[in-house]
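CORE FACILITY INTAKE
Project code: CF-77B
Contact: R.S. (postdoc)
Sample description: multi-component assembly, two entities in total
Requested service: structural model of the whole complex
Turnaround: standard
Below are the sequence entries exactly as provided by the requester. Do not edit them.
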Amino acid sequence: MVNADIPITVGVLALQGAFSEHLQLLKKASQALPSNITFRFLEIRTKEALSSCDALIVPGGESTTMSLVAERSGLLEPLREFVKVYRKPVWGTCAGMILLAEEANRTKKGGQELIGGLDVRVKRNHFGSQTESFSTPLSLPFLGDPTPFYGYFIRAPIVEHILPPTTPASSLENNTADTVTAPSKKPINDVAASFTSPDEVRILGRLTPSKLTTTEEDAKLGITSPSEGRIVAVEQGNCFGTSFHPELGSDIRIHKWWLEKVVEKVETKRRLEAES
Amino acid sequence: MATELPVETHVSLNGANGSTAQDATSFANKDALARMLKGGVIMDVTTEEQARIAEEAGASAVMALERIPADIRIEGGVSRMSDPGMIKRIKAAVTIPVMAKARIGHFVECQILDAIGIDFIDESEVLTPADNVHHVTKHGYKAPFVCGCRNLGEALRRISEGAAMIRTKGEAGTGDVVEAVKHMRTLNSEIKKAQNLSDEELYVMAKEIGAPYDLLKKTAQLGRLPVVNFAAGGVATPADAALMMQLGCDGVFVGSGIFRSGDPAKRAKAIVQAVTHYNNPQILAEVSEGLGEAMVGVSVSSLPESQKLQGRGW
């Protein structure tokens, strides 16, 4: 059990975008967790603030903006260390998932910096511009609850490709000239390394193909059955990513699910560190 | 940002029932994009090159237009929606959202912008109004709308018509922030006043400011506008941007201030950093250093009423 005297600090990267919405949902979700666990929720704009966090959410917004501001604020390397060296729990939504991907397509000219952590290739703005944005109920079996989760897909990315975890992204086939990749890093110690497990990417959610959710390209590919639907939620080790925005709306289930995972990982880490 | 926009308004304002799929015309999906722009800077650009400079600087969106407000002010004449071909070229040059302006009341310009897949429409006083009485009914479009305001009544009328985002009008193309400050201060003080009123008094206030009662009531409960609210009209420096953020704006539009300055790329980056770190004077000092010449600008107090753009809109 986590010592209630040491709160678990969860940060939300607050460089740009919908960080306030995540903080609001986190606060609500934490009230649905056992009261002996105390949380601290923080807006993160500096590396000093980041270093105090046990877990982090990278929110929705513009991924190019967040990436550039992170770089200019001296946060990009600390973020990569947070995710890949310390292997602390991280969740990215929409733009946040793009930043947590090892590879991204359709980035701006000259590419963009990624944090990495998820061995996936994401495609930005898969559905097109805002006029193609939509919201739809999603079936998310990992929640252990058949009630659909209402997902907002706003100029949303999708996971286009799951990468083999051990293969350097750059050696893969069908890399295009505009594919950008994140640099790789080694975990700091065995405790951190243990959070990489399971090391394969688990697909946690797919978009059911419908008129609204199928692009021309998807139609050409013949994506028609739910089992072939575009991947919109993935987990790998300490990283979790969603194409949609669970921070919009009043459904706290995903925030609660993720906070439970954070508690579990922080407990394990504190126990292992106390033992060593 | 003084008062956060509660996530509850996302559901309650727009009547999304959370069970059936909705396309882009749903207000919830429009409000969602507006929220994603928060904490960001939206920059006026007239060419693909400028759009790329804005994207590299970290703009969270660009506003594609043929003439920036400062030039509209100098050159005069009728200002209209930009050439859709030019807007499409800017869309192709960047990956961030692209906005474009339509004339007040010109619903066909809005239909055209919607048809080319624009990410946001600004029904803007910077262009010459096409209708002296009516604004566009903004609900049916796929693209969300942003509209200017000088006070609470104006803001709530626009939201009632379907705007998913509000901005202060300020006085565009001047580089003088005084009017944007005035409009934000006016909003804040009117909202404070509304918070202290009984229901009976709120009905009277709604009548006086020409705002729908329900939206006024919602605003009083929230202590802020129920949609995302940016600053616009006269922001020229990182300090101006941070000033508007500290006054409670959710983000900033910069029009002529960037590409009318000595070093647009550097200034654009500095303003982006200033909006993120608006509460950190140390960082604001660092990014304000050595930016070169700011936009020369024109003092609003020297402008005759007839040359002010903010009076357009009803």
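Facility notes:
- The two ends of chain B are 27 Å apart (CA to CA).
- Chain B touches chain A through 58 residues (CB under 8 Å).
Invoice: internal transfer
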